[in-house]
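Good morning,

Attaching, inline, the backbone tokens for the sequence recovery test we're adding to the shared suite. The designed sequence is right after.
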């Protein structure tokens, strides 16, 4: 049931996964779409997002804490800018061509996380 909801949802998915069962399932399910796994604050997190947004691949942020990096707010909110027939997303100081196939999965082990809307 949860898998069906997750695959048909229009929003980014937040997985509350204290035992990592959901993470294992996502990694297996999204392997063909070249899932990239990163963590909040990782040195190459922004570069991972830049490549995935442009290429339309999936990204999973593992073990999220209580806060979300401010640079990722436009990605999470899907704040795209339309110019002509293309859509762009501002990530930090760069504007990246947004591919509609891009998918983001947020995973936390916290039992009751509170993130800003």
């Amino acid at each position: 049931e949860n898998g069906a909801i997750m695959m048909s949802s229009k929003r980014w998915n937040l997985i509350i996964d204290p035992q990592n069962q959901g993470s294992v399932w996502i990694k297996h399910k999204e392997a063909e779409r070249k899932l990239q796994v990163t963590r909040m604050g990782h040195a190459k997190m922004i570069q991972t997002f830049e490549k995935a947004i442009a290429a339309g691949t999936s990204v999973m942020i593992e073990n999220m804490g209580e806060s979300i990096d401010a640079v990722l707010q436009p990605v999470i909110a899907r704040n795209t800018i339309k110019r002509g027939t293309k859509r762009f997303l501002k990530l930090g100081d760069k504007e990246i061509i947004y591919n509609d196939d891009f998918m983001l999965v947020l995973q936390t082990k916290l039992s009751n996380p509170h993130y800003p809307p």
